[in-house]
Amino acid sequence: MIVRKAEVFREKQGINVLTGHPVHHIDPAGQTVSGTTLAGEPFEASFDKLLIATGAAPLIPDIPGANLPAVMTVKTLEDGRRVKRFINENPVRRVVIIGMGYIAMEMCETLRRLDLAVAMVKPNPQFLPWLEESLAAVVKEHLVSHGVGVYTGHAMQKIEETDGGLKVSGPELGLPGDMVLLAIGITPNSHLAADAGLELGVRKAIAVDRGLRTSCDNIYAAGDCADAYHVVTGEKTWIPLALRANRAGWAVADNVCGKDVRLDGVSGTSVFRVLELEVARTGLNAAEARQSGFDPVGVVISARSRAHAHPGGADIWVSILGDKQSGRLLGVQMIGREGVAHRINGPAVALHGQMTVEQFSQTDLAYAPPFGPTWDPMLVAANQLIKKL
Amino acid sequence: MIVRKAEVFREKQGINVLTGHPVHHIDPAGQTVSGTTLAGEPFEASFDKLLIATGAAPLIPDIPGANLPAVMTVKTLEDGRRVKRFINENPVRRVVIIGMGYIAMEMCETLRRLDLAVAMVKPNPQFLPWLEESLAAVVKEHLVSHGVGVYTGHAMQKIEETDGGLKVSGPELGLPGDMVLLAIGITPNSHLAADAGLELGVRKAIAVDRGLRTSCDNIYAAGDCADAYHVVTGEKTWIPLALRANRAGWAVADNVCGKDVRLDGVSGTSVFRVLELEVARTGLNAAEARQSGFDPVGVVISARSRAHAHPGGADIWVSILGDKQSGRLLGVQMIGREGVAHRINGPAVALHGQMTVEQFSQTDLAYAPPFGPTWDPMLVAANQLIKKL
User: Fold this and answer.
1) Is residue A243 over pLDDT 70?
2) Inter-chain contact B273–A368, Cβ cutoff 8 Å?
3) Candidates B264, B342, B374; nearest CB to A342
4) According to a count of CB atoms within 10 Å of the terminal CB, is the N or C end of chain B lower?
């Protein structure tokens, strides 16, 4: 997504930005890239160092009707504008979202704020499968109580135009809508890299080392097309989020210019808001922990977002996970109407520091009545988890 | 502050709580405490283990009029009730607060919400001297712009009753008020411990080890009367705040029952809100860092509390400090109208983990447009600081 115009790059930064030049081939040995311009002219450019920043693309469900004009994805800035335009120019009252990931949740929030009816549908019977079960149940109930239709366990088989708009249907369910959003996930744009013989990693993302180098020494990859190390497991992961993408871009710039910047990796921290509910996570969930050879033990607690004596406040649910063997903190998940989004950063830092649950439980977190109880809910959870480790 | 009644302790927990029994003497060798009840009866009790949890007491300025009925401190629950009663039962319109610490700030917030005029005064010409200068200036301006009188550099010499209420006066300033709050600080209640020959530490707090033991093996101290280790300096400090006090109490209970709980110490994390402005800190400021032998280098940045494209949001100022020699993160201070209180916990955890500024700069913090820019303001600050280290 290029928000700045190409001229700005050319004139202010001396970067020869060539838009309309899709690259079709990378030649690592010859150190060239080549393709055909949108105007039909073949082109070739040579490089000393190459950065592949091809991002990711939305997955499109392979069903009839997925290409109808009122069926849209939401990945690029232009996608967002198209959705907005469509809502403004058509009598849209009901939206069906296929998928229930971050993008689906954020679109749900936005659409409900516009007072549109929203139904979400996906094949997996588990709602937010990466979220601890009891927390996921709270989020689901929250959505349903705010009038969102949540249909898990339904594989949709076609989208049809009807008299009144669109209809999304599966074997046991038909959902009418005026617009359909496809948000079933994204996949790294790594074909070009793969064709050039570069090594791919997790989920077919381009494999890079801590210095963002691909398997070819003078070729780097950064952004949603590349993988990363996970600071908890030490293994490769693909968690395409904005901060890592941006950070990796800067690191490549530094490295190309002769510095030796190495990125520790990601702890898998993320947050979204859906209908005033904040949902955040950092680190591993139980399934991921087991898969990486840990022996995870967890507790779930609920507490209040402010001190008992302070007016207002809301419930906060905390799920915390530690490793029975080493005592290490493995992950924290949290939901609540306030105070969740930034709270998750404490345990995120603890994961970077490879702290044990015990060490995290001893941290000196800020306390004042408007912002939390004396014992922050995360510390309450950590204290309970210690007893089980 | 005992919020529960003594009977609850006696009947539900089997703890023989003796109120009205002020202890006047501790005999460590004889393992007894003794005193005279409020009813005038002498008493003595023997112990195997003793916990001193005498807390701290507000400092009272030694000036005429400090004991007038409309002049009050705010330390105990009863203090708070007295202030509330006085406001309800008297035509209070103007309050003078002597002192400008946390309690003064929190009272200022509360009183302004009740629409009372507030003037704050203290001898030190520096407003919030522990806060980085440019941040302190923002807080001061915020208070002044909200109609609070802020008079630094004025030592008040007397409080007098006048026809219209009270007058607090110094050589160059006279402040009229209907009520005066004394909030110049607190001091540990350690006389009893000192008289018993127990070692005192920083600011005359009772010196305790990581297991909360005093210099006498079977005597513990916890709460605002006791000192603590600072996780950044490794030295003793006295930062009387609720979480540490509470945590120390639990640790003593565990240790008396035969466990061996040791507390790492405090990072000096705190937050308060004054007139919708959140002010938070963790770790050392430049003066404290120099005093502990570090070579502090700092930067101050301002950023927005939400993503650029997201409506709303507010300015956030971040001051970050690192050690030129070791690269270690030494402290972070932050102010802003939203998103400050919980943000400070990230660097607080980093201080417990003895992280460098570089390591902190690489942490994977949560990002979503309603909650911050892609690069959290703290990471922006850390990135800038790295260039100076």
Assistant:
1) yes
2) yes
3) B342
4) N
Of the CA atoms within 13 Å of residue B344, those in its CB half-sphere come to 31
B80 and A CB contact within 8 Å = no
User: Is B127 touching A (CB cutoff 8 A)?
Assistant: no
Q: Which CATH superfamily is domain A270-388 in?
A: FAD/NAD(P)-binding domain (3.50.50.60)
Q: CA torsion A286→A292→A296→A300, rounded to 10°?
A: -30
Strands B165-170 and B158-162: antiparallel
Name the CATH superfamily for A58-186. Answer: FAD/NAD(P)-binding domain (3.50.50.60)
pLDDT band at A290 (very low <50, low <70, confident <90, very high): very high
CA distance B313 to A255: 34
Residue B114 confidence (pLDDT): 95
Q: Which of B173, B116, B125 is nearest to B146 (CA)?
A: B116
Backbone angles phi, psi at A296, to 5 degrees: -75, 140
CA distance B362 to chain A (A): 7
Q: Is the pLDDT of residue B2 over 80?
A: no
Mutate to test the interface with A, among B246, B328, B363, B386 (most CBs of A within 10 A): B363
Query: What is the arithmetic mean of pLDDT over A50-64?
Result: 96
Shortest alpha-carbon distance between residue A42 and chain B (Å): 37
CATH code for the part of the protein at B194-266: 3.50.50.60
CB pairs under 8 A between A and B: 174
Residue B44, C-beta contacts closer than 8 angstroms, at least 6 positions apart: B32, B33, B34
The reported pTM is 0.95
Q: Is A67 left (phi over 0), alpha (psi -120 to 50) or beta?
A: alpha
A271·B376 Cβ contact <8 A? no
Query: In terms of DSSP bridges, do strands A94-98 and A179-182 run parallel, antiparallel, or are they unpaired?
Result: parallel
B242–A367 CB contact, under 8 Å: yes
Q: Would the pLDDT of A166 be above 90?
A: yes
* Beta-strand pair A329-336/A315-323: antiparallel
Confidence of residue A24 (pLDDT cuts 50, 70, 90): very high
Question: Of A198, A195, A197, A217, nearest to A207 (Cα)?
Answer: A198
Nearest-angstrom CA–CA distance, A347 and B365: 10
Domain boundaries, chain A: 6-56+187-256, 58-186, 270-388
| B83 φ, ψ (degrees, to nearest 5) | -60, -45
Q: Do A282 and B364 touch (CB under 8 A)?
A: yes
Kindly state the average pLDDT of the residues A6-12.
85
- Kind of pairing between the strands at A219-221 and A50-52: parallel
- Residue B122 C-alpha, separation from nearest chain A C-alpha, in angstroms: 24
What is chain A's mean pLDDT, rounded? 96
Chain B CB within 8 Å of residue A243 CB: yes
Q: Which residues of chain B are within 8 Å of residue A379 when distances are taken between CB atoms?
A: 243
A278, A349, A366 member nearest B363 (Cβ): A349
pLDDT, position A277: 96
Task: Please check whether residue B266 touches A, CB under 8 A.
Answer: yes
Hey, what CATH class is A6-56+187-256 in?
A: alpha beta
Q: What is the pLDDT of residues A316-352, one digit of tens each?
A: 999 999 999 999 999 999 999 999 999 999 999 999 9
Residues 6+ apart with CB under 8 A from B41: none
pLDDT tens-digit series, residues B77-94: 899 999 999 999 999 999
Fold match flag (A6-56+187-256 vs A58-186): yes
pLDDT at B295 over 60: yes
% chain B with pLDDT above 90: 92
pLDDT digits (tens, 9 = 90+) for B168-196: 999 999 999 999 999 999 999 999 999 99
Nearest CA in chain A to B244: A364
Record: contact A346-B343, CB cut-off 8 A: no
